[in-house]
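Format notes (please read before filing issues)

Several people have asked whether sequences and structure tokens are stored in separate files. They are not. Every record keeps both together, in the order shown below: the sequence lines, then the token lines. Line labels are part of the format and must not be stripped during preprocessing.
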Amino acid sequence: MLAQPIDYFLVAWFALAGLSTGCVAWDQFRNNPEPVVMKWGFVLVTLYLGPIGLLLYVMADKEPRPGEHEAFIEPLWKQGVGSTIHCVAGDATGIIAAAVVTAALGLPMWLDLIVEYLAGFAFGLFIFQSLFMKNMMGGTYWQNVRKSFMPEFISMNAMMAGMAPVMTLLMMGRDMRAMEPTELLFWGVMSFGVAAGFAVAYPVNVWMVSRRMKHGLMTERHSHGQPRAEEAARPAPAPHAGHHPTPPQAIPQVTRPQLAAVTLATGLMLLAGMTFPSLFVNMRLSARDVGGAIMPPGMVMGWDTPAEAMRDMSAVHPRQVSFTAPPAAQGDQVLAPRLEGGVKVFELDASVVRWNILPDVQVEGYAFNHQIPGPRLRVTEGDRVRIRVTNHLPETTTVHWHGLIVPNDMDGPARIVQRPVKTGETYTYEFTTEQSGTYFYHSHDKVDRQQALGLYGALIIDPKPPVLEPTADHEYVIQLQEWLKREGLTYPAMQMEGGMPNYFTINGKAFPATDSVKMKVGETIKLRFVGSNNNFVHPMHVHGGPFTVVARDGNVLPESARFQADTVNVGPGQRYDVIWKAAKPGKWLVHCHIPHHTTNNNVEQDGGGGLMMVLDVSA
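Then the structure lines:
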């Protein structure tokens, strides 16, 4: 699934890479007079580098007109291109194959790099150099291995010095889908890494060609299946600059101090490239640990950031969505129970949904029964209730009954009082209600993630007898929440770097999509404020006169303790019941008094946004 803008770029890039590879392959095997191993080298490198590989082929190797290949490829820079192509084709193939295997095995990144280096070096030395070049180099296979070892070692060190930091930092950056071979981004990172490896290895290969340690481009012409005699007899080039193609059997023109210095330099480059990323990313983690997580913009990640933190703060992947709610869908819908032997039975199903918080703004969230907030459960004090929770999330979950007195094994904290409910499993909670008032339920497994993404709902328990609770002409439940939507993805809002919310909702909607409650002058309304959010204390204010606070955290206040106010601070987990009387006609706001919380992505819309709703009073 195309989840980010980079995915669309990669689709176009790989389409161009396929076309470029086809062009190079067609021309190489139809027209270009050079050894088969170099034909395949250019084909493979163009597959990895796309249009860049096609450009290298056209500028450095493609015969411009029949009979001109020998002269065309003489310049040293072109010979260096050919040598680097041969190196990258073999080494990068081994590296990429190893990267796929190590990701599947779940090896940590530090070990992944070592395995990739060994695989790339082995494939380049034993296959691409010693085996594929055997006929041209002469001698036995193992003689060729010995002759190729040092040039391959130097070239591989330089190439991996370029590839390793690029691959590691990009794979373990914000978008860790790059660690998954099943994602386009993985192959995009590989392509970019090969380009970096080519750039770093190129100067080293130019030097080795000039010193006759490696061959560059060559011409191979056939007449009735045999090479031309004059081509086979071509003399070795001058030691300086490789202005002629260098045959593989040329005697190296390099001193031992020079060889030692270059080997040491490329070895240090390799060591730096392999270890430098450890200053910035946690190289103890594997693809399996992070699970393709996409981090929020601005999150601070370092070499000690644990995988669980990354998964906890990561975006909801759009491919996990199993249901898209209609734009006008409402949360907090009353769920009617069924009766089984006098027990009120409720069914809750947790899944990943796409939900509109505004007509033009969708979030990916976690929902009970396909709605955010989850359905309202309303029972009476003394009822026996049974709540069956089925988990269709991509992770474990539990449910906690906030503020209720229940048996300990029904309380919900994961790994403390119960085993987390795995994907596809159902867990049954059963208890008798002993209290009345305004309560709510929410996830208690990975709470900062799951509750922030929508796993919560109101639980209203009517008193028995009902006269014990203050009443009003109207009633409205206000469940508060904070959301983080950036660059097309939804992240759990958290009070930490990169996690700060930019949308705020009442009952799953942001103003102007929130409800407008119609009343008449003289009527009263009970507002049940529920701190179902995770992060902020919201000072909830009502225009048009004061209200009376009649209950707090589910407990009705005695008349002597009730008080009037126009603002009440609702913290996470808190509940306040207030009764407001409509004194004058008009549109009276209910809103959070932190101005930023009444905006949508930092912008006011139709007079406000976020935590705002209207009490529409007529005469």
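For reference, the curators noted about this record: The radius of gyration is 34 Å. Confidence is low (pLDDT under 50) at residues 224-246.
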